[in-house]
Amino acid sequence: MPPIVLWFAQANQFFNAQLSTHFRSLDDGGVLPALWVLGIAFVYGVLHAIGPGHGKALVAGYFLANGGKKKDALKIGFLIALVHALSALLLTIVAYYILEKTASKILREMGGTLSQLTGGLIVLIGLWLIYEIITSKFTTTKEATKNIQSLSVVLLAGIIPCPGVMTIAFFAITIGHIVLGIFAALAMSIGMGITISLAGLFANNFQQSSFLKRHVKWLWIVRILGALIVMGLGVLLLMTSSVTRPF
Q1: CB contact burial 33-59 (16+ within 10 A = b; e otherwise)
Q2: pLDDT tens digit string along 88-143?
Q3: Distances from the Cα of 72 to the Cαs of 17, 59, 80, 154, in angstroms?
Q4: Which of 50, 81, 97, 156 sits CB 3.0–4.6 Å from 192 for a disulfide?
Q5: Domain boundaries, given as residue ranges, for the chain
Q6: Which among 56, 15, 17 has a CA at the least distance from the CA of 39?
Q7: Which residues contact 83 (CB under 8 A, 6 or more apart)?
Q8: What is the pTM of this model?
Q9: Cβ–Cβ < 8 Å for 107, 91
């Protein structure tokens, strides 16, 4: 296992252990353990999104290919993180209260199928971006089209449930603190949103840099490269039976 992957695995174990400790301290009373849970969840979200995964690359590839406003990068980044967390939270709650013992098995099977389905749709988004890049010499991309593309990126990048949120939610339910578990999931999504938004902002600023504006040929190459990154991520997901690190 590469050192960086091992380091992130150990970091995830550390944060899970810290969350477990402070969740258990809630029964002793006081507000401090709850604040610790929210703070740790937020930092966990930032770190979780920094680690290896396809979400940041998908956002970066999209903005390299399509460009946009800075507020669009921020909005898309946080929406992806929110969808990523809420999908995990919803599946966990449904699985726990309805499916119970078969929850983990079903969620694993759903994760693999959802990953491959998402991969196929991401490939289509990449092809769509290439089409838009080629035809942009003759027509201007409509705002409605860009909005549809942005929404597609949000859903496809965020729909695969977040394993970190699932861990928090399962633990919160089992010890009877589901409300705090929901707020912890939201805190984690804010942390992830910061990291993902920064990836989008960096790619967007590079795509709209003065150098690329002066050298249109290089701008066209960068845009094609961004679309190919998106397509490559889709192909990678199609070839993968399961995904545990969507970000």
Answers
A1: bbebbbebbbebbbbbbbbebbbbbbb
A2: 888 888 777 776 545 555 555 555 666 777 777 788 888 888 887 787 665 555 66
A3: 36, 11, 12, 11
A4: 81
A5: 3-53+69-238
A6: 15
A7: 154, 155, 157, 158, 159
A8: 0.78
A9: yes
In order of 27, 96, 146, 181, the CA distances from 171 in angstroms are 14, 11, 39, 8
Question: In one letter, which amino acid is 81?
Answer: A
* Cα–Cα distance, 235 to 212 (Å, whole number): 28
For residue 136, which phi and psi values (nearest 5 degrees)? -65, -20
